[in-house]
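Practice problem: IclR family transcriptional regulator
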Amino acid sequence: MRNEDAGIVTSVDRALQLLLHLRESDSLTVKAASRRLGVVPSTAYRLLATLTSRGFAVQESDRSYRAGPELVRRVVDQVSLDELRRASRPTLQRLHDEVDDTVQLMVLAGSDIQFIDGIESSAALRVAARIGGYMPAYCSAGGKAILAALPWAEVERRHPTGLAPWGSAKVQSLSELQNELVHTRSARYGFNSDETEVGVTGVGVSIQGSAGSAVAAFTVAVPTARFRQPDLSHYVRALTTAAQSASRTLRRALPHADRP
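Answer key — structure tokens:
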């Protein structure tokens, strides 16, 4: 249907409004979308279903919707996931060769992290790479590293209704998360033990863009049964070196990264 007076295609305008809302919010229900657009729920549902079919939205188990991979393909201003993946891949490979455990590259997507690249360990007992997957940032080592680099007001903005439930999470509230991020910021790395899932230990360090803000993170994921506390310093050193190298590469290859 076309609004002749305004020269606007109404259905397209509504879909674009939903895209903007999904980009800025953690989730959106059909009921909330219908209220926002001033349409009946069935119309809102069809619009969200169309966006989902094209990868611009993803439906969660509670039937709410969040930004899909096509919408979060832009990590920061003018930097695409493909650009970030290509620029970071050689460093990710060197990190893997040094630690010989599963290493992954992730970015922040709302209150979640999205895994955009990874290389698995050659060990028989190893953590599987989660490329393309999402999980709450607050329980991930890399997610904590990125969140710790943000102002607390921005962390709160990304969690307007509190922390999304996650079965194995140990942090249960925003106040607990704030304390966790203070520690993460001081240590200069994120850590999780059996928080993303039982049996997995992770260490993560954030990667900075050209303006000094965190645009991504590298992590090392190790089966908890194989993790030894004395190995932590080795992982942190390797991750820090890799993150610094990736940051330099981003500044050279993508000088516009994270600049307004």
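Discussion: The chain has a mean pLDDT of 87. Students who identified this feature from the tokens alone can consider the problem solved.
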